Amino acid sequence: MENLGETIPTAFTRRAEVADAVTVARFVHALVGELSGGKDLGMEAATRNAETVLADANVVAVMACAGDEPVGVIILNECSAIYAGGRFGLITELYVRPDMRSRGIAPRLIAAALQQGRERGWTRLEVGAPAQPKWERTLAFYLGNGFEEVGPRLRRML
């Protein structure tokens, strides 16, 4: 399917369940590959991880579909922090197939995430944007969808 920049009127979102682990793993595998410059997470590990994460009660996953075909996913984790006034959501993965980008899929996933957050009483939704300026388009997407910059995110592996 050629990307014409048109929205997909038949696209919809639904909760992703453990039964969707292979599809979610495929999307996250592709996301990690894009962000890491091709470092392979490995499909077997990604599928095991997806099964574990999707079974976690503090995780909400939403899949976007065009017709009956999955085209994207967003994974949300419930967190708690004093600065946030209690519980909030963290977007840990958001991926839309390259051939479906700029067609309204990611904003639908963000809208579904906001709805999930409201239903759970979250005070906010946060996301770590990838390094700039390489991922300038990703940052622009989030800013264009109502997010605001609050600083970089760091990590230390355990």
UniProtKB/TrEMBL annotation:
Q: Record's InterPro entries?
A: Acyl_CoA_acyltransferase, Bact_Acetyltransf, GNAT_dom
Any Pfam family: Acetyltransf_1
Keyword Translocase carried by entry: no
Q: Where is the N-acetyltransferase domain?
A: 11-158
Which PROSITE patterns does this entry report, sorted A to Z?
GNAT
SUPFAM superfamilies, per the entry: Acyl-CoA N-acyltransferases (Nat) (SSF55729)
Keywords, alphabetical: Acyltransferase, Transferase
Any one Gene Ontology molecular-function term assigned to this protein's record: acyltransferase activity, transferring groups other than amino-acyl groups
**By what name is this protein known?**
Acetyltransferase
Q: Origin organism of this chain? A: Cupriavidus neocaledonicus
